[in-house]
Structures are given as structure tokens and as C-alpha cells.
Amino acid sequence: MSLISGLSIGKSGLNAAQLQLSVTGENITNADTDGYTRKVVSLTSSSRADEIYGEMGCGVSVQMIERVRNVFLDQQYNDQTSDSSYADTLATQYSALESIYNETDDTGIADALDDFWDAWSDVANNPSDKSSRETLVSTTTILIDRIQSASSELQEMKDTINDQIEASVDEINSIAQQISELNKAIVAAEGLDSSAANDSRDARDELLNELASIADIEYIEDSTGAVTVTLSGSMLVSPQSAFTLETSQETATNSDGTSYSITTMHFKGSSSTIEASGGSLAALVKMRDEVIPSYEEELDSMVSSLVTQVNALHLEGYTLYGLTGVNFFDPDGLTASTISLSAAVEDDCNNIAAAQGGSTETVSGVSVTSDAENTLTLTSINSKYRDLLDDSVVVYDSSGNLLEEGADADYVIDYELGTIQIINTTDYPSGSSFTVDFSYNTSGFSGSGDGNNALSIAGLRDTDITDPDDSGEYTHTLAEYFAASVGRLGVESSEAETSSETQESLLEQIESQVSSVSGVNLDEELTNMIKYQQSYNASAKFISTISDVLDTLMAI
Amino acid sequence: MTRIALQQMYSSVVRNVMQNQTTLADLQLKLSSGNAINKLSDDPIGLVNMLDLTTELDYRNQTSDNTDNAKAYLAVVDTSLSGFDDLFQSARELALQGASDTLTSTDRLSLLEEAQQELLEMVNLADTTYKGDYIFAGTDTDKAPYSVLDGTGNITDSAVTLDTAYQIYDTSNEDDEVCRIIPGTLEIDGLEEGTDYEVDYVNGTITFLTADAQTAAAAGLDMSYQWIRRNDLDNDNGEINREIEPGVTMTINTTADDAFGNDQEVDCFSSMIALMEGLYENSQDDIETSITYLDDSIDRMTSAQASVGAKTNRISDTADRNTANITTATDLLSNIQDADLTTVLSDYALAETVYEASLEVATSVMETSLLNYL
């Protein structure tokens, strides 16, 4: 070996140490950069063939600057990011859904429903009192307001989700575009001088992870360094270009029959809808198409039972004006968004049908004569004398003898029509006089003091009037049904929360594994810095030593 | 050996500190709101129980209001019936006094005066209202069951015969058949009661005794009197009901028929009229007969009062049970709904300690670096 070549060995040491120091510097400065992968300089000893000694070292050479990265972990990390983002979005949405139902304080629907029944009970207690009727109307208005506001908030939530889906699609397009550009940069850089395009790769890995959090993606890197990304089985980024997703509005039908618009996505130039299978996008779609509609349906079915059952009783009752056949709720408003008071009740609370109508009256000593058909017609005495009570009729003849009822005795009765047919025409030919005692049901308005219909309606609170089983039997009271619906929401929301926490901690584990491999540890870098400094110093010392030796030689 | 990256260390510190903060915030919310359940997912099972209990409690409270209302109503009925009872007892005293041999007709007339006041007071009581509603009118609560009417009248037949009872019709009041005429109030212009005609005060009939009276009747009578009408209400047997306990209703009203009788000839007002007729006509026999009628009225009244008493007892009993149920439900609800302060406070203290510890550790870990020694 020659002394001169010693100098070049020293120089290669200086170069290597310098490069190592600068990579260390980069690692230290990027310690907190998202997606940054720590880099190490890989060195090899260079050698040459010597005539005498065979292979001889000629210093150190830099093979490459490589990223410290485990590609298998990357794949897992992206998959977990999808799962975690799905669970997290679902939990956030559930939490928003929960906040629509204020059932934990006294501003909820359950509370308004209780007040509604109480108000009916108060009307039953004071049927002629205007203020209790006014209270019923205002209490019902509060109930209607709360139901309608829940319904419109549910609808708004679906609209917001549509907006979020639109924004997500924009983001997917932007990310796909960037990945495609990075693909080109990486292929170009690595194809040219087989050096690693480290920073572009870092950026691309970061983008793939962002994409995974929006939707479940698959990707594969080919030999040129370009990645192909597929979204739900369709190609989003090819090695050459990115494909654009577009959104369109479709019409879906609510449980109450009204329609609303949903945002779907498809590739530009294609009509087939792309469904995201994971990530935040899938959670949003599930929320909009499954979860929210199921709660809307339950709310609607509760409203439908409430309106139908209350109206059924109300129609049969009598208003303070003595009218019957008046609806309490608008019979067409059978859904949460359309429920409203009937115009009659809204205009005038005296139209609340608190009275049941009809009562029982007893009369005695009614004189009546049998006609040509041997019939005693009580309605000819008074048109109210019909709808007689069973076993209430007693018939005497003109001399005060009691007649016997029965088909084989003296007479039979048509209770409904109020007629008595004399059968024993031998003793009592037509034209005979009789005295009759009986009780009858009066029909029609029964006075302003009758609150019995209000009492029946108030009794609906404790009656199973909703949620029919297979045989059509109602199984729940409204309060039970609503509590069950809200309870289900609580359970689902709490499950979503737990699942989100689990996924989050799984993600953290993988993140820490990734970080453990690729992240920057400052202490390590500082140690390396000292090492490289020493190495530089040593190489410099070696050069100065060679130089001294050369001086000595020159001085000869 | 695991490498710990800088980011990893910092993010785990931040995560842990945040987690401790969340725990603290949850506990703070429980403390400040006093509620264990602040959103549905806090405790879904507890929430459903809470909603069920709230509904149950609300229902019980409403029935409790209903029983209070019913008790007040029954108290009014009872007061009214007791008033009747007192009046009848004193009317009976009057009758016994009036039946005595030693009394002159003047004495009896002064007793009549007293009896008339009592009768008018009875009509007042029968028309008792509660919150503006007549309590003995069935469901026709806006109509008075009885009225004292000033009548003018005639009989329908123009050709009258002597010694026949003719029904009087009140021409001032829809030509109603008159009954229960208050003795001493009937006057016929130009005719003398007792000499020219006789009156059946209970049934409202008149019998003419002289040819003068016969002529006057045929020409049309100028007649004035006061009578007590049982007003024709369509629904005076209508029931007024209260839901006194979930699913249980009870009829709380007493009908006029129950309290005063439905047979015009022997109802409680007619029994008073009978007494007064005896006093007016100075007939000891009639007075004695009227005592039997008065006793019947007193019996009817006592039985109506007993029924009111039984209803009041039942309601009080139900109300007590209701109160007990309300207390139980309130306790249960409070167990679910209200944050247990002792537990929450001690949890809070613990969470605070953990939070402070995590902050302390974080600072000391983050401060340490190889840089400190270079």
C-alpha cells in the first residue's frame, strides 16, 4: 500500500462520518415530524486487489441512506387505522345521536308524555274548567314540539352526514392525486440511480395511512416502487394515474313515507355505486342508512299509536258543546314530523271531548197501551225511552198485577228498541193498559260535569297500546316502548364507545411498534453523534499521522 | 430490547394525562349535576329503570292529586249532607212539638214559619256547588237540581166539577205540572182557602168546594204560590269518577235520587211539605203522619252519608298506600338517578391524585435526556 492511498482511506472515513453526522442531524430535527422514518447510513468497507497481499481495504464507502421501516407493520397499521377510525366515527355519531334525546333531565319526550297524561287526568277531574283544558292543549303542544324537534334533528343529522361524505370524497380524490404524483417521483428517482427516494416514500406512507382512516383500502407496491391502491375492489390509484370519485344525490324513503336525499359515490364515468367497507366513511353510511332510520321508525310508530288510540276514544266522546266525532290530534299526522293537534282543539279547548256521553236513568209508573200488534212502544211516550237496561223492566197490568217475562209467559222485550211484545193476548187483548218501570241508557251529551272520556284517555297511559306482536296484540305502553327505544340507544352508544376505546388501544399498540422501529430516539441519536464525532476525529487524526509520516519522508 | 421513540414517549404521556383528565371531568360533571346518569350511554340499564320509575312516580303523583281532589269533593258533599241531617233533626223536633195537644193554631203557624226557613235552607243545600259545579246534579253540573219557583197558574179544564182534584200548571214556568207547593204561599184572588177550595200541597192539586169557586175557576184563576221543582236534568244520574290509583276508578258523586229520594210524593222535600201542610192546616193527624215521612228522609240521608263516609275511608286508605308507593319509588329513583356523593367524592380525590402523579412523572421523564450530561 502507498502512503498516498492512506490519505484517501482517511478521507473516505471523514466523508462517511460527515454523512452520518448530517443524517443524525436530520433525524434529530425531524424527531417530531409526522410520518418521518428515522434513517441510517449503511457503510461497507471498500477494498482493492493488491498484487502482493491480495484483497486490501481502501477505506469505507457509503452504500445507501435507508429508512428503518417494517413493511408488514405498515400494512397492519393501516388496517388498524381503518378499524379504529370506523369505531371512532361511529362513537362520535352515536354521541351526537344521544344528545338529541334529553331523557336524563326533565326536557325529554318521556317527561312530556307523562305531563300529557297528567293533563288528561286533570281535565277528568275538572271537565268544565277552562284552565285545565287550556293546560292540556299547552302540554300537548310541548309534547308535539319535543317529538317534532327530535324528528327534525334526526333528519338534520342525516343531512350533515351527507355533507361529511361529500367532504370525505373530496379528500380521497386529493389524496389519490398526491399518491399518484409521489408514485411518479419515486419511480423516476429510484430508477435513475437506484438511490432510495426516502422523503417521497415517507410522504406516500403518510398519505396511505390518511386514506385508510377514511376508507378501507388495499395497496401493493410493484418492482418499480409505484403503489396500486384499490378501494372496495376498484382501482383508485394505478402506477400511472389516479381515478376520480364523484358524488351524486339519490332519493331514499323515510319510515314515514317521506323521501330524503342521500349522497353516494361512484367513479367518474361509471354509474355503479362504491360502498366503503371500512374507515370513517363506512361508519357514516351505516349511521345514515341503518342506525338513524331505526330510531326514526320507533319514534314514528310511537306517534302513530298515540294519535290513533287517543283519537279513537276522543271521537266517541262529547265536547263541552255537546258535539261528538271530534278528533284530538290531526288524524293525518301519524308520524313524528307531522304530528299536530286537530284544528278544532287547537282553536278552542272546549272542543276537547272530556264527556263520555250517556248515563242511566230510571223511570217508574209509565202508562202505556198495547197497539193493534199487541206491542207496547215506550218510545211513543218519550223518544229517549230506548236502549233499556237488562233486567230493569217490570210490567204491571191496570189492576196492579205483575206480569211475567218470557217467550212462554206474558211478554218479551226488545231492549234496544224499547218495545214490549205482549204474548199473553188471551188475558191482555190489544188496547189493554199497562204500567211499566224500567231503566234506560241515555245517549248523547251528558253534561259539562262528565269527565269520564277524559278519564278513559288518561287511562291509556297504563294500557298496552303499541308494538303489536305477531297475533296483533299490543305488548307495550307508550312509555315502556319509548324507554326501550332510548335504552337501546344508550346500550348501542355505550358499546360504540367501548369498541372505539378498544380499537384505539389496539391502534396505539401497533403505532408504538411502528414507532419503536421507525421513530427517533434522541438519546440514541446523541450517542451516535458522539460516536460519529469520534470517528471523524479519528479519521482526521489518521490523515494528520499520514501527513506527519510523509513529512518525515520528505525530510530525508 | 424495545426502542422507545421520542414521539412515542411524548404521545403516551399526553394520552395518559388526557385520560386522567377525562376521568376527572366525568366525575366533576356528576358532582356538579348531582346526577349519576348524564347521558343515555352512561348507564343504559339504569336509564331504562330511571325512565320507568319516573313514569311510575309521575302516575302515582297524579293519582295522589286525584285523591286529594276527590277528598275535597267528598268533604263538600259530606258537609252538605250533615247540614241536611241537622235540619231534619230540628224539623223532627218541630213535628213532635207541633203534634202536641196543647198547641193552638197560632202556635202551629209560628212553627210553620220556622219550618219554611228550614225548607228553603234545604233547597239551598241541595243546590250546593263545588268550584261552580252543582254536586247533586249528576253530570249536568251546570244545572241546579232543585229550584224554588214563584208560580202563577191555572188548571186546564174549563168545566170544573166540585170535589174533584185538579192538577195545577205553572203558567210562568213552561206550564210545568206543579207539586210541592209551600203551604201558606198560595193565594187565589177572590177565593178563600178552606172555604172555597182545598189544596194538596205535595201533589199540587186543587179541589173546589163552592159554586163561587167553580165559577171563578171556569173564568180563569188569578193564582200565585211558591213551589219546589226537581229540575228535569237529562243526566242527574251521571257518574263522576276519579282515578284514585293506577287503573282503579271510583264514583265519587252522590245523586239527588240517592240523597233526597226519587219519588216525588215521599222525597225529603215532600216530607217537609207534608209537615208544613199539617202545621198550616192545624191538623195534628197530618203532623203525626209527616213524622213517618221525615224519619224515612232521615234514614235515606243517613245512608247517603254513610256511603260518603265509606268512600272517604277508601280514598284515604288508597291515598296512604299511594304515598307509601311514592316514597318507595322516590327512593329507588334516587338510588339510580342521584350520584352517590361519598363514592363520587372519594373517586374524585383518587382521580385527582392519579392525575397529579401523571403530571409529575411526565415532567420528570421529559426533562431527562442525554443532553443534560453533554
Strand content of chain A: 15-25%
What's the gyration radius of chain B in Å? 40 Å
Q: So how many helices of chain B?
A: 8
Distance between the termini of chain A: 20 Å
- Largest two-chain interface: A-B, 76 and 67 residues
Cα-atom radius of gyration of chain A: 45 Å
pLDDT < 50 runs, ≥5 residues of chain B: none
- The run of helices and strands of chain B is HHHEEEEEEEEEHEEEHHHH
Q: How many beta strands in the DSSP annotation of chain B?
A: 12
Helix content of chain B: 55-70%
Please state the overall shape of chain A, judged from the principal axes of the Cα atoms.
Answer: rod-shaped
Number of strands of chain A: 16
Largest sheet of chain A: 3 strands, antiparallel
User: What is the typical, i.e. mean, pLDDT of chain B?
Assistant: 90
**First-to-last CA distance of chain B:** 24 Å
Number of helices of chain A: 10
TL;DR?
The complex is a heterodimer of chains A (556) and B (374). Chain A contains ten helices and 16 strands.
What would your notes on this structure say?
The complex is a heterodimer of chains A (556) and B (374). By secondary structure, chain A is α+β, with helices and mostly antiparallel strands. Helices cover 50% and strands 18% of the residues of chain A. Chain A has ten helices and 16 strands. In chain A, strands 3-4-5 form a three-stranded antiparallel beta sheet. In chain A, strands 6-7-8 form a three-stranded antiparallel beta sheet, covered by helices on one side. In chain A, a hairpin with a 5-residue loop joins β15 and β16 (474-476). In chain A, α2 runs antiparallel to α9 (478-518), α4 (130-193) packs antiparallel against α6 and α6 (279-316) packs antiparallel against α9 (478-518). With 374 residues, chain B is α+β, with helices and mostly antiparallel strands. Chain B has helices at residues 6-33, 44-98, 105-126, 211-219, 256-260, 268-280, 284-337, 341-367; strands at 129-130, 133-134, 146-154, 165-167, 169-170, 176-177, 187-188, 197-200, 205-208, 223-230, 241-245, 248-251. Chain B has a five-stranded antiparallel beta sheet with strand order 6-5-3-10-7. A three-stranded antiparallel beta sheet of chain B has the order 4-9-8. In chain B, a hairpin with a 2-residue loop joins β1 and β2 (133-134). The radius of gyration of chain B is 40 Å and the shape is rod-shaped. The interface between A and B is large, with 76 and 67 residues.
